[in-house]
Specification:
Distance between the termini: 38 Å
Number of helices: 12
Oligomer: single chain
Bound molecules: pyridoxal-5'-phosphate
CATH topology of the largest domain: Aspartate Aminotransferase, domain 2
CATH architecture of the largest domain: 3-Layer(aba) Sandwich
Radius of gyration: 21 Å
Helix content: 25-40%
Shape: globular
Number of strands: 17
Amino acid sequence: MTPSTELQRPVIKTELPGPKSLEIINADHQYVTPSYPRPDYKLVADHASGVWITDPDGNTFLDCNAGVAVCSTGHCHPEIVAAITKQTNELIHLCGTDFYYRHMPELGKKLDEIVPIEGPTRTHFANSGAEAIETALKLAMYHTRRQKFISFFGSFHGRTLGALSLTSSKKAQRLGFMRQALDVTHVPYPNCFRCPFNKGKCSDGSCCMGTTDWIKNTLFKTTTPPEEVAGIVVEVVQGEGGYVPIPTEVIKEIRRLCDEHGIMLIIDEVQSGMGRTGKMFALDHHEGVKADIVCMAKGLGSGMPIGACTARADIMDWHKGAHASTFGGNPVAIASALKTIELLEGGIVENAREVGSYLEAGLRKLAEKHSVIGDVRGLGMMLGVEFVKADGSADAELRDKIEMACFNRGLIILGCGTNTIRFSPPLVLTKANVDVALEIFDEAIAESN
Ligand SMILES: Cc1ncc(COP(=O)(O)O)c(C=O)c1O
């Protein structure tokens, strides 16, 4: 692991955003789509290194978001830059869907070794998380000859029409797009802090079995016969929905239901994968539970656009021409992914586990101090802090104020769910970085409250 950089604290020299940043923001507002879900604060990046981002005005921020859980090895890790640079000098593109190059089988083999799938696998390469999900949906339909899917409220699987049919973390993602492209039924996601079945709070996940009872006793017996279900799509730690981890008993029972009815268990590791949770995949936290199909993107390429859908080899049985992508599995993106995995295995996943639990402990201490923190949860460096009012209801306004106060002090964090702040830093974050982040977070909460 390469240490982040020498810099110890954020440096804010101008009002935010500064004049050069403002110019870019104004041009963006004129020429770029207004549909991006940007937060109230406005960060403009000029360059970045490790866990530090510098804006065009010379302000430097401590990054606890990693470009939304993407820059797993830190910004511009020298070995990633070297791997990309070398590859761009050798071969940038050839279209692996029509021709061959070594990179695809190399990454396919590596993923076969590490994904939480039993037995031999095969991989289809794409450019993004949504594309990896589209692949999984088409594959599950093709293999099972079924058309229905089960997904979870609060889930986020992407914004293309198939993936959007699964996605349900915010109204804004759906509003204006009318009917779903695919036949998807949504069920409540287990949440020990806010039990969707009003069974109170539990810490062992037992109350969350309401989710699988609902699938078995309501869906399967009414609108969604199991013999028509192609796949159940699960985020092992719900990401955009609020950083909510699934209890082991629930994912085990979902696996059992899939086995009983020949349904594909599709695990979306787009945000939770590639070491983020302190293990290579979030599903690895649930011993004995394996997926049929795993989707990856975000952290896989350390910032290069790459998505992958890895499935049991006997499931990936579709005919020539059934699915492909011009850019998917581009040699430069794969060179970055191979180096990323090497670095993750070489100590970064371990760092995510160790420093992640240090960060979690610090956040729990802050929860003792600030009663507005209702819950601290998550795994490794995928940690959520939920803000509540005195009556325990969600406090989205306070969350947004805290987000802004952190930015003004030079700490980059981002909301998820309605009232949660997520910590998804580059996985090279150090304990010294955590101390600075916690100090700023503490001040921001005190000021906003
Ligand atoms: C769990 C999950 N799945 C899929 C996606 C979609 O990925 P992309 O934005 O690369 O299409 C995301 C993006 O946030 C995600 O968090």
